[in-house]
Amino acid sequence: MSDTWILLGATSSMARAMARELAGAGATLILAGRDMDDLRATAADCTARGAVSARAMRFDARDPESFQPIIDATDGDDTVNCAVFVGSMPPQDRIDADPSLIDGVVMDSFTGPARFLQMLAPRIEANGAGTIVGVGSVAGDRGRLGNYVYGAAKAGFATYLSGLRNRLTRAGGHVVTVKPGFVDTAMTWGIEGMFLVAPPEAVARSILRAVDRKRDVIYTPFFWRFIMAIIRAIPERVFKKLSI
Amino acid sequence: MSWKQADWSGWGRALTASGQLARPERQSTLAALMRDTPAPAIGGCRSYGDACLNDGGRAVRTTRLDRVLSIDPEAATVTVEAGVTLGDLTRLLAPRGLLPAVLPGTGFATVGGAIAMDVHGKNHHHAGSFGQHVLSLRLLTPGGPVEVTPGSDLFAATVGGLGQTGIIAEATLRVLKCKGDVMVVTERRVPGWNDFLAALDGSEASYCVGWIDATATGDRLGRGILEEGETGAGLIPPPGRARSVPFDAPAAALSPPVVRAFNAAYYNRVPRGGRTVVRRIGEYFFPLDRIHDWNRLYGKRGFHQFQCVVPVAAAPALRRILERIAHSGLASPLAVLKRMGPGRAGHLSFPMEGYTLACDFRNTPDAVALIETLEDATQDAGGRIYLAKDALATGAAVRSMYPDHGAWLREVERVDPEGTMTTDLVRRLGLRNAA
């Protein structure tokens, strides 16, 4: 029996790259997201690339009704793993103009996926195995002028993952927190000020390496650990005047 | 919709463009984009000249729409998104005993690009052109999506049609059922021009191509190596890591003495009596892909590839073209001679029954002047030049080489009356103007 992987937010290019890697290794895939046509195309592609099976399922972080069917679809699988790629980042000025947008950002980037993982956790405990990959962001390491609502949601998610790791480790499960820097995706395409942009394929490979080695928290590409260490070390008194 | 200001160039790097690029990751994004701001597609940018450029305008990069949607080993067909590369597709098909029916010299070209250029491969004399294996296309024209099948005017204007009818979103291709995963290749030295033509004419191999020493003159004019290949079953170690050229090489790297010495060594590498070797599929079809960015070997100013095809009866004219290249001393080691069959699928498809010669030149004023004379000679010989390679030709000459230009133009004007799909190549050659 092959490993089952649920990918939440499987329309993202990082998730697609990871799905392809997993397909090549012969995994069983559940590709979950909102754009069903796109998910079906990725599922077909994963089947062509060696997945035992790949199916598209609807997942909407803002609609908890969509959660249970996905978990039910893994009934009877020996090892169930899950990688979370969902999140949304409307421009900060749009949030400034319409504060109600905060609710959606928090649901997409934190509470939606956290609630799903909360429902999945007993399955991992029962199986005594299973890995959860939570893709956060370096934006969660420090609240910045440009995207602090998104950053706050990702920081909340990172703290949640830390606690979940604490819980699942006792039962034989594992949680990897991934903090990507700038990745060459539709989200960053054409945005000014991008540097050291990593291809999604490289991020996917480093995530799977971290899964194999049971790493807890990774920055990808690795040098972001140093960049963020510096940014975190800046005293608040100074940081509040910077716009980085 | 996300557009990014970018500078880019074709594989030859002699011409560049500066404009707005989009790179959709979903079909729904691509469709919305074609509805709101129709723009020509670019793929792997492996055409050499300006076919993939739109200076001061927009272009849609399809490389993220690269999924394989279905493989039917029984029927030997595949359906793919048009941004998938031929190398990727070849790797996925090989374990299933399938092979794309036509493969050009690089695996980094996309399926969409291969269709828009109606590319050919080392088996053209048997298998015809890439477009002849296209069973259907989902084409996003500026007026909306259309299913396009062979036999229609739109098909003939789209295949080999330089992207002027819209963006190819998906394609269904007929593929070959092949024996296995390696190529059995026989290499033979050919001492001169007449022998080379005779060898190409006489070859019965499925795949056949000639490397030619474009620096050899006199009795040795047209000497080279004939490579004949067949697919086969067997085991061979996986490929090593691809290497890349990290910087632009200085001009001396490809100076005439270096090229002459390289070519002599390359020729003598094959034993006098010939040899048969086993190669990986990818290594055989895409020999240069293992060196990423090999175009940088030509330096910052880039290079040009001249490729023409002339009818069988015009072989003496092709010999004169090669003589001119050899005497110029400007040729690089990359020169290829092939027999071509009549197979072509579109109005502006390159192939015609005859011989095709391709040769690379570093981008220098002398090379540009030489290529211009070669193009005139091609026209006089009743041949044509390959628009996927060209960066220098003039419109009147090209329109006379492509007699179906009028039929192509009628259909293109019907589906894209506003000219939103125009590219630098099309502008330079005036292809959207009536003759």
TrEMBL record, chain A:
Carries keyword Oxidoreductase? yes
Cellular component GO terms, alphabetical: membrane
Per UniProt, the keywords (alphabetical) are:
Oxidoreductase
Q: Which InterPro entries match?
A: NAD(P)-bd_dom_sf, SDR_fam
GO: which molecular function terms?
Answer: oxidoreductase activity
Highest taxon of the lineage: Bacteria
- Give the family, as the similarity comment puts it: Belongs to the short-chain dehydrogenases/reductases (SDR) family.
The protein's name in its UniProt record: Short-chain dehydrogenase
Q: Which organism is it from?
A: Palleronia salina
UniProtKB/TrEMBL annotation, chain B:
The FAD-binding PCMH-type domain covers which part of the protein? 13-178
Query: Which Pfam families does the UniProt entry name for this protein?
Result: FAD_binding_4
Q: Which InterPro entries match?
A: FAD-bd_PCMH, FAD-bd_PCMH-like_sf, FAD-bd_PCMH_sub2, FAD_lactone_oxidase-like, Oxid_FAD_bind_N
Q: Which GO terms describe its molecular function?
A: FAD binding; oxidoreductase activity, acting on the CH-OH group of donors, oxygen as acceptor
* Highest taxon listed in the record's lineage: Bacteria
Q: Which UniProt keywords apply?
A: FAD, Flavoprotein
UniProt xrefs under PANTHER family: D-ARABINONO-1,4-LACTONE OXIDASE (PTHR43762:SF1), L-GULONOLACTONE OXIDASE (PTHR43762)
The protein's name is: Decaprenylphospho-beta-D-ribofuranose 2-oxidase
According to its UniProt entry, this protein's organism is Palleronia salina
